[in-house]
Amino acid sequence: MNLQRGIAAGVPYVAKPPMSGTAENAPVVFGWHLMDSPRSEVAFEAAVPMEGLDAWRIYLGLPLCGSRMPAGGFDEIMQLGMEDAVLNLQGPIADQAAREFADVYPLLRKKLGFGDAALGVMGGSLGAAIASLIIAEQVMPVRAAVLVSPLLQLRAVVAAMSRVYGINYDWTPEANQVADRLDFVARASDFARAGAPPVRAILGADDEPDGFIEPAENFIGALRSVYNGTPTDLHFVDNMAHALADEPGLEAGPQLPHASKVDALAVEWFAQHLR
What we know:
The protein has about 280 residues and is of the alpha/beta class. It has helices at about 40-45, 75-110, 125-135, 155-165, 175-180, 190-195, 210-225, 255-275; strands spanning about 5-10, 10-15, 30, 55-60, 120-125, 145-150, 200-205, 230-235. The protein contains eight helices and eight strands; from the N terminus they run E-E-E-H-E-H-E-H-E-H-H-H-E-H-E-H. Strands 1-2-4-3-5-6-7-8 form an eight-stranded mixed β-sheet, sandwiched between helices. Helix 3 (about 125-135) links the parallel strand 5 (about 120-125) and strand 6 (about 145-150).
C-alpha cells in the first residue's frame, strides 16, 4: 500500500496515488472524516480506502481532531460541546476546513503531481457537511460527491443530540447563522448553481431518524427537484448506525463489515461519475 502522509497548509493528510500510476490525468477524491469513529484522516482511510478506484484518494484531518486535538483531548472536546456545540465545534470546524481546502488543494496538486482532472469529494457526518460546503459555496468545481452518515441539517442534529444528552440548546442569532449555512436541504439550489454534481448519500439503517435519516431523505428530494435529471442516490446500509469504525477511531483499524459496504458504494459512484 503506497500511503503518503504529510502536512499541507497546516492540515494533516494521507494520500494514495491512482492504481494505474498515471498521476497527472487521474481524477482526485478528497475526504473529510467524522468526529465519531473514524475521527482522523488515517482512521478514515482505513475504514473507507476506496482500493478499487483508479484515482488519487486524499484524506484530510479536521480542525480540533486527530493530531490537531486540543491539549485537553477528548475531555476538552466534550466540554466545548457541552458549552456550545454549534459555536465551539460544528460551526468553526466546518468553516475552517472549507477555508483550508482552498489552500490545501493547490499545494497538494504541486506536491503530488495531479492535474486539473475531475474532482470528487467525500465526507462522513460533519465531514460530509464540509464536502457539501465545498460544493455549495463553489470553493472548487466538484464533479461528484459521496456523503456518508451526513450532517445535512444542523438544527435537526442538534435537536437529536439534545434529546440524547437531556439538554436544551439556546439558539442565538449567531448560532442560527451557522445553522442556516449548514442547512443543505434549504441550499439545494446552491448545488444546482455549482454545476449539479451527482450526489450519493449513504446512511446506516440504524442511524438517528430525526437527526440524520429524515434530513438525508429531504436533501435528496430537494436536489431532485432542482437537478433536472442529474443522478442522485440514497442508500441505507443494514446493521449500521452512525460510526464507521470501532472506538477510539484515531488510528487505522480493521475495516468493519458495514464500512466495507460503504466503501463499495463510494467506489461505484466515483467510478461512474469521475470521468
